[in-house]
Amino acid sequence: MNETSHARRGRRAPRQAGALEQMPWRIPLNTDAPTEPIGPDGVEAIHRGVMAILRDIGIEFLNDEALALFRQAGCKVEGQNVRMDEDFVMEMLDRAPGPFPITPRNPDRQIIIGGKHIVFVNVSSPPNSWDMIRGKRSGDFDTFRDFMKLTQYFNCIHVAGGYPVEPIDIHPSVRHLDCLYEKLTLTDKVVHAYSLGRERVEDVMEMVRIAGGLSDEAFRDTPRMYTNINSVSPLKHDFPMIDGALRCARAGQAVIVTPFTLAGAMAPVTLAGAVALSLAEGLSAIALLQYAAPGCPVGFGTFTSNVDMKSGAPAFGTPEYMRATQISGQMARFYGLPLRSSGTCTSNIPDAQAMWETSNSLWAAVQSGSNLVYHAAGWLEGGLIASPEKFVLDCEVLQMIQRYMEPPLWQTAPEDIALDAIAEVGPNGHYFGCAHTQERYTKAFYSPIASDWRNYEAWELAGAEDSIARGHRISREIIENFTPPPMDEGIREELSDFVARRKAEGGAPTDF
């Protein structure tokens, strides 16, 4: 695919006035009743299964500190296998705070995780990128910075999560230092730390503290950042992620525990079995964190989907993925935990498959009552590719979801039923010019980013720019005209000095 194929007959589409309009920053509230595929008996059956896994089969913890804590708590520890009874698990879950805020260096960008709040996170952790000019290539630092600019620009992206693309041209020992410096200076949104060893987690916590101009006490007083950890399905937690989670929890920072269970591969092929396994893995880690740091902010993440049984490849945005997400939402509410899910697809380019699978995933997040939605913009090839064009197109979907949640769409006051306007226009007029329409037209909240609502002839006349080309153009306009958010120069210098010192000390080890 090349640029010419997206600008028919060699004609470039002209710059469109207002192409970069978007909705203002806000945290959407999801007031819809959640979709609940299983009844109370089904919830109880899965709960019983989860407790049986934890009591009779156990979870492997490859972390000596975790094993010592479980022994101290009275759990049954044999080697690296930990078994825990229902009373212990439920007592620990009762300690979890439920909804909690995360306040970044710009307090106006504070988010709430839990309740009816839903916030969206950029694409995180692909090793590769793809755009319509250069195709697929390994991640690099320049591309990482481009994605951080997109993350900051779009108001419908609330969190600068993991690395939007892994910059392999930066040595792994210092990569976290360079990446977090760019995150904290190019954005003013909530950031996250990868739990990949003590140094990486503690460096990020210190950099977030510096960027916020905070004392140690103020940093620890309320969540300022978070980490997301994954289990090693089936039935295992590794050393570095549990280590990082414990460090964050003890520092008052949030931890999201997200098992990655693919039905038929790393989990039972039945959705109920896959969800039960995922919950057992997640709750075991959350119980550990609540024992070590009572009341620490935590959430449960679902990443349960199916695989193509012919090839073994993951499948996302499928009916199975949607149902697993909805059921996980039911169970998260049962346990009183905020829920994380994801916007996902397996398509290799930003085509129709990419958009229908991502839309299915995002609407499953809405239906499940998810509070934190990872990979909401830019994800391709099952998480192996990040695409700027896809980022723009996904933000269009996110704006539609956000607009869908705005109260004006379902208000039923007399002025909304509009009997006076209906009588005024009658059977032979139209509503474009009537006062009722004109008074409300300027109050519309949805501003299209990448949609093209012209007819075919007008589209042809303008250059026949398709959605991928439009996404490419818009992403380049944003990147090339980007202005970073303000930061005090003293704080910037302190942050830079910290990075330089930690690099001189060798950064972080690259083995665990």
TrEMBL record:
A GO term for molecular function: methyltransferase activity
Biological processes per GO annotation: methanogenesis; methylation
Disordered: region residues: 1-22
Keyword tRNA processing attributed: no
Keyword field contains Methyltransferase: yes
Pfam (any one): MTTB
Entry keyword set: Methyltransferase, Transferase
Family classification: Belongs to the trimethylamine methyltransferase family.
Name of the protein in question: Methyltransferase
Organism of derivation: Paracoccus zhejiangensis
